[in-house]
């Protein structure tokens, strides 16, 4: 009786690919460290200022990227209308705070009304997103994946048209109620606007984490993300859970819109397309579908842009978006699942 001996052989191609990925990652990281170190030595104050600008951008991108990653995580849809929802949030907040409430200068009343505007804009954008899910996406959940993707692009154009009629074809300026100026930390200066961004963004992110990890609805979201049919058999209302996810994503886009309108002070009808793509890159960088990854990706992209635009040894502002999409290309080649994502296999 002959014995059968089996062995497991790891294909050499897989080993080579893993080695190439590790070497490429180490080379890129080494280059980034050398670049940052040279800039820090050359001008510490400029380095700090660029970092603060990047942190501002990063928190904005993180809020928008979370909307992409939440929706993708639960129904595997890239909602390309999400960036335009952010644009409508910026327009709505400026209109509500300046035109309706008549507040156009800093002060205690301005801060109070700004908080009211944040809540109102979250409701406004969340409501629009839920409506989009019900009207445009719900019937296409079991359709081929290209169908909802094309629908999302179509909804993006519709929201852009609304923004064009509301904002006009040229950028519109809005006053800010945030205090001007800065305060010192040693030899460095920090703008008060950064404190305002942190004061709005951090509580929103903590609230989101609590909702997803500690509430009944958050557990339902995680169950639906794992398996819709199994969640339905366990008594989860799948339609309501998906609508709730769109509500949260829209609210986050609205929050980002308020921040942008107050810090930058300018809105445009195509604003969502530009920043939405960068936020999408942030979500992919962190690992789309991963909430922590979306925040990490947003902060990293923001810091990279801030350092590139504001440091002496950088490509400069005109290359800012090119740098972002170069990162996306490198990521797709060497680590397509993102920094915190997991490799997936196609079901057959």
From TrEMBL:
GO cellular component, one term: plasma membrane
Key word Magnesium present: no
First-listed, main subcellular location of the protein, grouped into a coarse class: membrane
UniProt subcellular location: Cell membrane
Protein topology in the membrane: Multi-pass membrane protein
Keyword Nucleus: no
Entry superkingdom: Bacteria
Protein family per UniProt: Belongs to the binding-protein-dependent transport system permease family. LivHM subfamily.
Protein name as annotated: Branched-chain amino acid ABC transporter permease
């Amino acid at each position: 009786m002959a014995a059968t001996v089996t062995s497991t052989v790891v294909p050499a191609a897989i080993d080579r690919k893993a080695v190439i990925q590790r070497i490429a990652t180490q080379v890129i990281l080494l280059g980034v460290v050398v670049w940052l170190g040279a800039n820090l030595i050359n001008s510490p104050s400029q380095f700090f200022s660029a970092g603060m600008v990047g942190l501002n951008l990063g928190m904005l991108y993180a809020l928008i990227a979370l909307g992409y990653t939440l929706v993708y995580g639960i129904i595997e849809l890239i909602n390309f209308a999400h960036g335009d929802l952010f644009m409508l949030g910026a327009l709505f907040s400026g209109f509500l705070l300046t035109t309706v409430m008549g507040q156009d200068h800093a002060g205690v009343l301005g801060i109070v009304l700004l908080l009211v505007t944040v809540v109102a804009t979250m409701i406004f954008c969340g409501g629009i997103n839920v409506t989009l899910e019900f009207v445009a996406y719900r019937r296409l959940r079991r359709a081929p994946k290209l169908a909802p993707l094309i629908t999302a692009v179509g909804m993006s154009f519709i929201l852009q048209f609304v923004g064009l009629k509301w904002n006009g074809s040229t950028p519109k300026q809005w006053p800010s109620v945030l205090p001007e100026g800065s305060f010192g930390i040693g030899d460095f200066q920090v703008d008060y606007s950064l404190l305002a961004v942190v004061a709005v963004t951090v509580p929103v992110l903590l609230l989101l984490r609590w909702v997803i990890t500690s509430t009944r609805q958050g557990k339902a979201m995680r169950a639906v993300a794992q398996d819709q049919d199994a969640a339905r058999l366990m008594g989860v209302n799948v339609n309501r859970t998906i609508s709730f996810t769109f509500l949260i994503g829209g609210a986050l886009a609205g929050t980002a819109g308020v921040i942008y309108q107050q810090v930058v002070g300018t809105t445009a009808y195509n604003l969502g397309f530009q920043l939405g793509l960068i936020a999408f890159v942030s979500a992919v960088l962190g690992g789309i579908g991963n909430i922590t990854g979306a925040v990490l990706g947003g902060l990293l992209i923001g810091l990279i842009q801030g350092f590139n635009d504001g440091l002496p040894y950088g490509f400069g502002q005109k290359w800012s978006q090119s740098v972002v999409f170069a990162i996306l290309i490198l990521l797709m080649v060497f680590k397509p699942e993102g920094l915190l994502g997991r490799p997936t296999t196609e079901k057959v």
